[in-house]
Structure formats: structure tokens, C-alpha cells
UniProtKB/TrEMBL annotation:
HAMAP family according to UniProt: GTPase_HflX
Organism: Frischella japonica
The family this protein is said to belong to: Belongs to the TRAFAC class OBG-HflX-like GTPase superfamily. HflX GTPase family.
Subcellular location, record wording: Cytoplasm
The protein's name in its UniProt record: GTPase HflX
Length: 433
């Protein structure tokens, strides 16, 4: 039995062009993925097929050619830019005497390198265990069945059966721990709903600049790098938006073409932050030649997690890489902002983004005139703190006549804290702008 691959230093890349997806950009992206995993690319082998071959996926002739190249280059791993069945991967390994990793396995390896928090590591481990659980066959065929002690001799449990049992137990343990994480996140979301806090989620293709924009808006120091999947663990911060108040901004994991379904399932607790958002900020690398396909890839993942119907604001990032492009807001025929052009790296256009957020989130403004008794002067101070008083005069009896303009969210919050406030406005209907 050949020595199984342990590192990831030297690799041969294999890509198959099919008639329905003849996209060279997919191959370029795969090269970036490989570089992100810190793997040296020895050579790139491409071929064309009408459909995958059952035994090797790539065809027997091309498989023999790759086996010769493995010996010629002394490659330590073969990376396939497609999803292979366990049988296809095993057949290629036996033929080439070299480990074979498909696209899903490579992405999982990158995620394992990037995970920093305990939750992120659990999610990655869950996806890895689900992935390898079907790929254990023949890994231990050289081992005999285990023997029992006195009175227990005879055929026992094979190493393969032992591994499957241990993996199943570990998956069950991780799922129970992630269930606790999901419960905690759910409680946090309920607390935000109770406090009438809007939630914004940064979504977008990996390496579009989401974390850079997050840091620029929140003055945080979330890890950023010019690499795929620099962010795996969600981070939440509060920001202030004029006429809206405090909102919660969430930085989430980036998406990619053909994101493995097991990975989406494993990151369910993380992606729920996106699903429960009031507004999605879809960050797009405006300088990427392939931005249209990237947008479609993100839309596909959002549809998969049932977040495609959430209102979305497009953020065209990295305008500093475009000649002559200035920060601006694009509006629809009703004057509502639907796209903002900015540079998160240079902090250009952030003021326009806040204006767009104000208009998208702060549409419901409550206005009224209220006579505030002296004994509620503390509430008057609260109105000043919220910058909600448009005009004020003092009545003869010492009460205050206030013209109020306040976000509906803040008004509802004050009404919960001061139940008598509703009676003080003489049952005037709410006037929303």
C-alpha cells in the first residue's frame, strides 16, 4: 500500500471542460484556491468530455497520462476541480499512487486553516467528518479483524467499522454542541428583536472586501487579507445610522461557486445571521472582470439558505482600482438607493453608504406634537438625547410643547418604557414619512 499524502506541497491540477460549463474563469478561481491553501502548482492538466467517466471521471487515457506526470514531477497530491465520488477518487489514487483531492476536499482544507474560534472549528470539523465518512473504504484493508479477550475470540469489529462508529459518535457530539451555539444565537437575535434593533449582514463573494468594509464602518480589527475565505467566524458590532439609531452589522463567511452542500449545512448556525437580517449588504468587487458570475453565485447560495427574498443593497467595492470612478449612489425610478459605489480600503464613499442605509432603514419616521407635563421632564431629556425635538416652546402652566420627529423604532421603544406616552399625544394617528 502506498504512503498516504500528509502535506500539500506539490500538486498537479486537473480540470475538465464540459459543453454546458466551458468556463475558463472557473479554472482561474481554482488556481487561486490552490494558492490560498499554500500548495505549489507543478502543472495544470485540462481535458474536454461530454460527460464524466464512471471509473476515473476524466477518462482512462488521461488518467494514465496523469499517472506518468505524477512520477515525472514527483507530485504529492492531485487536485481535481470537480466533485468526485469516493469510488472515482479511490480508483485514481490506486492508479497514480498519489492522494487525490477534489474541489470539496480542497475547500474544506482551506476552511480548516482559516477557522479561529471554537465554533468555526466545530463547523469545519463537522463538514470534514461528513465528507470523509464515505471515503474510508480500503483505508484499513491491510488490518485484520480485532480480537476480543477470553470468551470473546472470533471475528470482531473491523478497523473500518470502528472508524465509522467513532465518526458517527463524533458527528453526533458536534451537532449537539452546535445546537447549543444555535440556541445562543437565537436568544441573542430575540434580544435584538425585543430591543427593536435592525440587523444588517454583509454578504458577497469571497475576497470582495466584506471584512475591510466591516472594519471601516465599526472601527474594528477583524482579520483581513487578500485571500479566499479570510473570514469564517461571524462578527457582530453596533453602528449608528442617522434617523434610525443603533443597528447591528454582521460580517459573514464569503461565498464561492459550487460551495459544497455539506459546508452550507455545517455553517447553518452562522448563515442564520444572514437569513434573519432586515437588510443584506451585498459587497461586490467592482474591479473583478467576472463580477456578474460572482453575483449569480452569491444569489444561488442565498436561495439555498432561503435568504433570497430579503431586501438587498448592492455595495460596489474597490472603486480605487477603477479609472475615473467616483463614489456615488445609484437610485431606482422611485428614488430609492439600490447600489453604492465606494472603496472600503481607502474609506471613500462610506458617508454615502450611511445615507443609503438611512433611506433604506429609516423610511418609517414618526412625527407628532406633544404637551409634556413637568413631571415627565426626564422624558424630554431623552428626546434631546435622540435628537428628536424639532421645535419646543414652554406653555403657561410650565409644560413643554414639543414637535417630535423620531424613528418609529425609537418611538415604539419609548412607548414600551413609558406606557402613558400614548395618551399624551391625544390619540393622534401616527404619521410616517
Amino acid at each position: 500500500m502506498f504512503e498516504r499524502y500528509k502535506g500539500g506541497e506539490k500538486a498537479l491540477l486537473v480540470h475538465v471542460f464540459f459543453p454546458h460549463e466551458n468556463d475558463i474563469e472557473d479554472l482561474k478561481e481554482f488556481e487561486v484556491l490552490v494558492s490560498s491553501a499554500q500548495i505549489q502548482i507543478l502543472d495544470i492538466i485540462t481535458t474536454s468530455r461530454k460527460s464524466p467517466q464512471i471509473k476515473y471521471f476524466i477518462g482512462e487515457g488521461k488518467a494514465l497520462e496523469i499517472a506518468d506526470l505524477v512520477r515525472q514531477y514527483e507530485a504529492s497530491v492531485i487536485l481535481i476541480n470537480h466533485s468526485l465520488t469516493p469510488t472515482q477518487a479511490r480508483n485514481l489514487e490506486n492508479l497514480c499512487e498519489c492522494r487525490v483531492v477534489d474541489r470539496t476536499g480542497l475547500i474544506l482544507d482551506i476552511f480548516a486553516q482559516r477557522a479561529r474560534t471554537h465554533e468555526g472549528k466545530l463547523q469545519v470539523e463537522l463538514a470534514q467528518l461528513q465528507y470523509i465518512s464515505t471515503r474510508l473504504v480500503r483505508g484499513w484493508t491491510h488490518l485484520e479483524r480485532q480480537k476480543g479477550g477470553i470468551g470473546l475470540r472470533g471475528p470482531g469489529e473491523t478497523q473500518l467499522e470502528t472508524d465509522r462508529r467513532l465518526i458517527k459518535h463524533r458527528i453526533h457530539l458536534i451537532l449537539s454542541r452546535l445546537a447549543k451555539v444555535e440556541k445562543q444565537r437565537s436568544q441573542n437575535r430575540q434580544a435584538r428583536v425585543k430591543a427593536d434593533l435592525s440587523t444588517l449582514s454583509l454578504v458577497g463573494y469571497t475576497n470582495a472586501g466584506k471584512s475591510t468594509l466591516f472594519n471601516a464602518l465599526t472601527d474594528s480589527d477583524v482579520f483581513t487579507a487578500d485571500q479566499l475565505f479570510a473570514t469564517l467566524d461571524p462578527t457582530l458590532r453596533r453602528i449608528k445610522v442617522k434617523d434610525v439609531g443603533d443597528v447591528v452589522l454582521a460580517d459573514t463567511v464569503g461565498f464561492i461557486r459550487h460551495l459544497p452542500h455539506d459546508l452550507v449545512a455545517a455553517f447553518k448556525a452562522t448563515l442564520l445571521e444572514t437569513k434573519e437580517s432586515d437588510l443584506l449588504l451585498h459587497v461586490i468587487d467592482a474591479a473583478d472582470d467576472n463580477l456578474i458570475d460572482n453575483i449569480h453565485a452569491v444569489d444561488d447560495v442565498l436561495a439555498e439558505i432561503n435568504a433570497h427574498e430579503i431586501p438587498t443593497l448592492l455595495i460596489m467595492n474597490k472603486i480605487d482600482l477603477l479609472d475615473g470612478k467616483e463614489a456615488s449612489i445609484d437610485r431606482d425610478r422611485n428614488g430609492v438607493p439600490f447600489r453604492v459605489w465606494l472603496s472600503a480600503q481607502n474609506k471613500v464613499g462610506l458617508d454615502l453608504l450611511l445615507i443609503a442605509l438611512k433611506e433604506r432603514l429609516g423610511k418609517q419616521i414618526y412625527t407628532c406634537q406633544i404637551n409634556l407635563p413637568v413631571y415627565l421632564s426626564r422624558l424630554r431629556s431623552r428626546f434631546y438625547e435622540l435628537n428628536a425635538i424639532v421645535h419646543e416652546k414652554v406653555n403657561k402652566d410650565g409644560s413643554f410643547c414639543l414637535n417630535i420627529r423620531i424613528p418609529l423604532i425609537e418611538w415604539n421603544r419609548l412607548c414600551k418604557q413609558q406606557p402613558d406616552l400614548l395618551y399624551l399625544i391625544n390619540n393622534q394617528p401616527k404619521n410616517r414619512q
